[in-house]
Design a protein that fits this description.
The chain is an alpha/beta fold. The chain is about 20% helix and about 40% strand. β3 and β4 form a beta hairpin.
Length: about 120
């Protein structure tokens, strides 16, 4: 149902380094980019994530209650993504752990303050 998710950034080069590393851990790469936008994912695949400088030219802001969930292949990969994000300056929003039976996730904020989680069901 979701085609892709786009998050705002005030510093595309800084944010790109962060998402390049996360995408590599998840086994994907950049699929599209311009001077103001970069997207990661697979052509013809599932939902991807994009970063953009806001079209209106104003500063990027964080949506209250907005979060992007990154699906992982194992609990170990959840831990790796979370720890990788934290090593690159992501703020902790809740370390990896089982939130309820069958749902394991770690929460963090990217360098622009956008909230993400790495998760696995089952």
């Amino acid at each position: 149902m979701i085609g892709y998710v786009t998050l705002g950034t005030s510093d595309l080069a800084r944010a790109a380094k962060f998402y390049d590393a996360i995408a590599a851990e998840l086994g994907t790469k950049r699929m599209m980019e311009s001077d103001t936008f970069i997207a990661w994912g697979e052509q013809g695949g599932g939902a991807g994530i994009g970063l953009t400088k806001p079209f209106d030219g104003k500063a990027a802001t964080v949506g209250n209650g907005v979060m992007v969930a990154l699906e992982c292949k194992s609990r170990e990969q959840v831990d790796k993504v979370y720890n990788l994000a934290r090593s690159m300056g992501a703020a902790d929003e809740g370390p990896p752990g089982e939130r309820f039976p069958g749902f394991y996730a770690g929460y963090f904020r990217d360098p622009d303050g956008n909230k993400l989680n790495a998760f696995i069901m089952g």
